[in-house]
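Can't paste images in this forum, so I'm doing it all in text. The chain is below; anyone willing to post the predicted structure tokens underneath?
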Amino acid sequence: MAETKTVHALSNGSAGARAIARMVTDRGIPLSRYRAGRRMKVLGLVSTQQPKHRYRKAEQPYIGIPNRLDRQFDVDASNKIWAGDITYVWTGKRWAYLAVVLGLYARRPVG
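Text version of the structure:
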């Protein structure tokens, strides 16, 4: 039973009975998924999967900010127009924000 608890801890609590059975069997101790499930129940172990990230689709543009570029992205001089964007990046344990500012003339990040 200690092996079941160890493998569950190594998976950060995300492994279920099938994954635990496979990992314990790979370590040389034969274990079926049904027995792994029973051991998990006795030890009080529960598989906790990370929730899926859902992007929200904007149904209408935000009216408070004027659209000054009007999709005219061809710029004739440096440092005239910058554009920015924010996205989410999975870091292995949680979601993190990534914000980038691009200079549209060189198409390179400036911040």
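The CA atoms of residues 21 and 102 lie 49 Å apart. The helical segments are 2-10, 17-26, 33-43.
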